[in-house]
Amino acid sequence: MSQQPIVCKFGGTSVASGDQIRKVAEIIDADPRRRFIVPSAPGKRSPEDTKITDLLYLAHDLARKGQAIEAVWDQIAARFLGLVAELGLDLDLQPVLDEAAAEIKGGASAAYAASRGEAINGHIVAGILDATYIDSAEVIRFGKGRRLDPLTYELIADRCSESGRYVIPGFYGADRHGTVVTFSRGGSDVTGSIVANAVDAESYENWTDVSGVLMTDPRIVPEAATIQEITYKELRELAYMGASVLHEEAVFPAREQGIPINIR
Ligand code: ADP
Ligand code: ASP
Ligand code: MG
């Protein structure tokens, strides 16, 4: 039997800069089982910084009001192009950036706008990892009432049947007409859990800016101790009560297959 893969989700701060993305590559290179990578959109590089997702929602809002998006769009494009330059990648992002800007100006939905953070960043992460890029709109399928369509699991398994690495951007998918739908904020955690279920992963590694689930939010209690082991039920409860380290919906897909969630 072939080795079971590990699914790795990287949060916003973990992909916020070229140096951070290089660390992602080191982590992936360190274990050949790490074959499925779910990146978020670039997050904050410093407390004063703005998340790409927030800039994209802002651009959508301006477009909706008939205002110019150029000033905001220039910031978004500059961050992505800056990452490509920092990493020395041979990747022409201009066509995907232009397409996204045109769609947003042309009245695309807030979900479409927001999803571009993960979609475009996925190209960068796939570039540095030499991985196959999969557009999540083609494999993460939403049904009625924005519920996950179980067909999603088959679609992912079918597209990822070869050996090698795959990058599947977090946070979004599409309905059966191909219209982009997102999870709620922080939803890349859910994508990672879904991919882990679909590929029957050995574990779901959720790489973030804290070393594990802590007794409480370290922004409130800096010396909060790490919880070494926690049941799915308790983790879900903590997330539901506001422990933003994991999206509250991210527990279910992994739990369904008994896949351990490892917060790194
Ligand atoms: P990412 O961008 O990687 O998804 P998030 O900001 O969504 O990261 O989640 C990580 C943050 O969750 C931590 O920086 C921490 O401030 C916060 N947090 C809240 N409650 C907890 C908790 N119980 N344990 C760990 N982190 C927590
Ligand atoms: N980028 C999205 C957000 O900021 C999703 C995520 O980071 O998980 O909410
Ligand atoms: Mg998060």
Query: Could you give the order of strands across the largest sheet?
Result: 3-4-2-1-7-8
* Helix/strand/pairing category: alpha/beta
Low confidence ranges: none
> How much β-strand is present in the residues?
5-15%
N-to-C span: 27 Å
Query: Percent of residues in helical segments?
Result: 40-55%
Bound molecules: adenosine-5'-diphosphate, aspartic acid, magnesium ion
- The sequence of SSEs as H and E is EHEHHHHEHEEEHEHHE
Radius of gyration in whole Å, from Cα?
18 Å
Note the overall shape. Answer: globular
DSSP helical segment count: 9
Q: Please give the largest β-sheet.
A: 6 strands, parallel
Number of separate strands:
8
Mean pLDDT figure: 97
List the keywords.
single chain, about 260 residues, alpha/beta, six-stranded parallel sheet, 9 helices, 8 strands, globular, binds aspartic acid, binds magnesium ion
Give a brief outline of the structure.
This protein is α/β, with parallel strands linked by helices and 264 residues long. The chain has helices at 18-29, 52-64, 70-87, 94-105, 110-129, 151-159, 188-198, 232-240, 251-256; strands spanning 6-10, 34-39, 132-133, 166-167, 172-174, 180-182, 203-207, 261-263. Helix 4 runs antiparallel to helix 5 (110-129).
